[in-house]
Amino acid sequence: MMLRDSTLPYTVAHRGLSAHAPENTLAAVRAAHRSGCQWVELDVQLLGDGTPVIWHDAGVRRCSNRRGKLFKFDRETAKTLDVGAWFHPRFAGERIATLAEMLGLLNELGMSVNLELKVNRGRDPKILTDTALPMALEALPASRLIVSSFNRQALESARRLESDGRRLRLGLLYDQPPKEWRAIAERLNAYSLHLDWRRLKEKRVQEIKQAGYRLLCYTANDPIAFTPCWQWGADAVISDDPGLFTHYLPSTG
Q: Which of 36, 96, 229, 234 is deepest in the core (most CB within 10 A)?
C-alpha cells in the first residue's frame, strides 16, 4: 500500500471556505483558516492587462456587482468591483484578489494551495502559466503547492517551466479521465488526478492508486455519500464546507 503523503490533508476548502464566504476571495481564505483548514483550492486567470487574479468565471456577473468579461478589465477597474455583497451584506466592499495578494496572505497564515490554472474559452494557456506559475513557485515551497488544470497545454507549459516533479506537483483535472490518462500523467510527471467524485468508480480509483498517483475528489459536500470514495482509496476531498467531513474521515472512522 502506498504511504500517505503527510503534506496532503484529507480536506481542501474549495475556492476558500466558499460555503461561508464569497468564493476565491481573501475573506474566503481567512474563513478557511479560522475553521482549521490547512489547504485551499483557488482559481487563477489573467485580466486584460496581464495581471493574474483569483477568479473562476469567464465573466464577473455571478460574483460581483458588475457585468462583463474578466479579460476586459485591467487591475484598476477590476479593483472597483464589489465581489462580496452578492454573497452576503457583511462582505460588501470585498475586492478581487490579485495572485500576489493571495500568495502573501497564504504565507501570512502558513496555508497551502491547490492552484488551478483556469483557462476559459479564447484565453491563452501558455501566457497564463508563464505569468502565474513563477510567482507561485517563488512564494511557496513545493510541499505547500499543487498546480492543476483541465487544460493540457497549461500543464505542459508548467512542466516546461519546472521539470522537477519534486519541485512542482502537477494535478490532472478531469470530469472523467480519458483512456490515455496514464500516458498523459507519465509524460507530465504528474503528482495527482483531480476527479469529479460523482463519476468515480472503484476500478478507476484502484488503477490510479496502483499507478502511484494521489487522488483528490471534487466538489463533495455530503460526507455520508462520499464514504465509498474513502474506502476505495481517495486521498482528499475538495469541499465547499470541509467541516462537514470532520467525523467522517478515514482517520476518525
A: 96
Q: How confident is the model at residue 185 (pLDDT cuts 50, 70, 90)?
A: very high
The DSSP letter of residue 140 is: S
How many Å apart are CA 164 and CA 159, to the nearest integer?
8
Task: Give the span between the Cα atoms of 226 and 26, in whole angstroms.
Answer: 28
CA separation for the pair 150, 39 (Å, rounded): 20
Inter-residue contact 242 to 9 (CB < 8 Å):
no
Domains of the chain listed by start with CATH number: 11-252 (3.20.20.190)
pLDDT in tens, 71-128: 999 999 999 999 999 999 999 999 999 999 999 999 999 999 999 999 999 999 999 9
**Residue with the three cell numbers 477568479:** 55
Calpha distance 18→26 (Å, rounded): 11
Partners of 139 in the β-ladder: none
Q: Quick check: helix, strand or coil at residue 233?
A: coil
> How far is it, in rounded angstroms, from Cα 161 to Cα 165?
11
